[in-house]
């Protein structure tokens, strides 16, 4: 079974909305505007690109990333990875032509089936609503979090607010950087 890794920039209060400057959110661009850049804090992002064998995202994240990431040198490896977009509304005509193989999945069950295929880790980028659905379905295996020393208040949150039994996590990697940013890698304990 493939490992599904949720990777996110997250504020201390759990907000993941518009970290890179996507329009429509009061604190848009919070990862760059409010915290000093320390290059070593982003080592995990390069490692993710090298270790991943596929990318998964929801429609909103796909529509934010697909016009920009294909031409960015720092995301060149993602161009070669198969991408999966979970959406009930996207069509093949909505997919960008310059970002490599992209498959539309319609349901959480199709994500579960993807995890059963041969291959290595699948990275789940952004996609707050999809994170909620996949977490609630027990499909996320690991979290790669870069936690910013910010309280943003309102905004889309990484974790579901569903009333459910406690889910134990095991901290497997962590580091604190000079700007207060924290890397936290958790495995989901089953």
Between the first and last Cα atoms, what is the distance in angstroms? 14 Å
Radius of gyration, in Å, reads: 16 Å
SS-based structural class? alpha/beta
Low-pLDDT residue spans: none
Helicity range: 10-25%
Largest sheet: 8 strands, mixed
Task: Tell me what you see in this structure.
The protein is globular and about 40 Å long. It has helices at 30-33, 43-51, 59-65, 76-80, 108-115, 128-136; strands spanning 4-11, 54-58, 83-86, 102-105, 122-125, 142-148, 169-176, 182-188. The chain has an eight-stranded mixed sheet with strand order 4-3-2-5-1-6-8-7. With 190 residues, it is α/β, with parallel strands linked by helices. Helices cover 22% and strands 25% of the residues. The model has no long low-confidence stretch (mean pLDDT 96).
Question: Which terms would index this structure?
Answer:
25% strand, eight-stranded mixed sheet, alpha/beta
Give a topology summary.
Elements (H helix, E strand, L loop, with lengths): L3 E8 L18 H4 L9 H9 L2 E5 H7 L10 H5 L2 E4 L15 E4 L2 H8 L6 E4 L2 H9 L5 E7 L20 E8 L5 E7 L2
Parallel strand pairs: 1-5, 1-6, 2-3, 2-5, 3-4
Antiparallel strand pairs: 6-8, 7-8
Please summarize what this structure is.
The chain is α/β, with parallel strands linked by helices and 190 residues long. 22% of the residues lie in helices and 25% in strands. It is globular, with a radius of gyration of 16 Å.
């Amino acid at each position: 079974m493939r490992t599904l890794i949720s990777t996110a920039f997250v504020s201390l209060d759990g907000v993941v909305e518009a970290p890179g400057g996507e329009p429509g959110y009061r604190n848009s661009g919070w990862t760059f505007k409010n915290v000093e850049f320390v290059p070593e804090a982003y080592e995990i992002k390069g490692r993710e690109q090298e270790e991943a064998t596929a990318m998964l995202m929801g429609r909103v994240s796909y529509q934010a990333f697909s016009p920009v990431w294909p031409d960015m040198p720092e995301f060149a490896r993602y161009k070669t990875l198969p991408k999966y977009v979970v959406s009930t509304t996207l069509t093949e005509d909505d997919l960008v032509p310059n970002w490599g193989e992209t498959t539309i999945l319609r349901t959480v069950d199709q994500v579960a089936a993807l995890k059963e295929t041969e291959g290595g880790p699948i990275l789940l980028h952004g996609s707050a609503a999809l994170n909620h659905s996949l977490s609630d379905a027990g499909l996320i295996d690991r979290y790669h979090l870069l936690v910013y020393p910010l309280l943003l208040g309102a905004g889309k949150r990484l974790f579901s607010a569903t009333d459910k039994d406690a889910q134990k996590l095991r901290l497997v990697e962590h580091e604190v950087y000079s700007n207060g940013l924290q890397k936290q890698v958790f495995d989901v304990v089953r």
